[in-house]
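Record type: monomer structure entry
Structure origin: computed from sequence
Chain ID: A
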Amino acid sequence: MQRPRFELPEALVMKILSKLPVKSLTRFNCNTSSVYGACHGLLCLHDPLEDKAAIWNPSTREFKILPPSSIQRPPYFSPFEETYLSLDDVSFNNAAFGFDSKTDDYKVIRFVSLTFVNSEEEYSHPHFLHQVELSDSWKEIPSPDYTPTEPNGNIFVDGICYWKTVYGGYLDFRGLILSFDLGNEEFSILPIPEFVGSLPEYYVDLLVFNGSLGVIVYPSERIDTSFDLWVTSEGVWTKQFNFKSISGVVRLLGFGKNGDLFLRDTNDEVLLFDASTQELKELEINTYLDHFRFAISLHAYVESLVRINGIQKLKKHIIRQPARDA
């Protein structure tokens, strides 16, 4: 006899998960429990396939589920087909998370992709539109001319969220950096270092270096790959370092304490490179990355007692810095 299947309400599931240790939660990773940012000890969790987002403090186990979007998405009138198209699909992409000092609260911003089709035709040509939503009440803000190119390739620095984007044509795509100021709620564009060629020739990854926006630039060819680190100050790029090829390494993820580097190798393992000893250390955290090899990102995290609904003075809330290899 088959046992009946019981499904728990989502709110109850989230409440149960919020009481579990971090080590236990990592056992239950799935393709949609994605981390889209860390700020002041808080993590933003977001499901790009569904209208689900939450903010979590692992230290206090406080967990806040953001409300679903209430933004209207009426049928789209197509001048080409001279008829209204029905909404067929909605996806929530490129979320970013940060702190707005003007409102003394945390915000989540995400790009919404809308697909419209002619419901009266069996093989309708889809039409795509984009929206941008800002939490936590999810209000719509004007969409920029550019959209991010990577699902989780964003960083947050000093009140501003950054994403990679591109412009140009076939085999001559040029890189740009799209930014959003959480305080004035406006988008802007920042160029990458001028010497960088077209994107088929170079890869550009965003990161944080000493509290500033930086980029790692490296050629797409895997033979003797070297990495250049550039950091910007008020829109001016300055080259900081050049890292010669480290055997087996295909991508730099970012910097840890004391200038140590987190890397990804050809076996999809995450490594730590000690800059002082020039030694590589395997961190043994690759067991759940098999299907996310191109979506690995590094987020700075400190244990804290910051409340999700706001912050007073950050230094009073920090318990301690994480271990060196945390």
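Annotation 1: Residues 10-17 form the longest helix (8 residues).
Annotation 2: Residues 18 and 61 are 5 Å apart (CA to CA).
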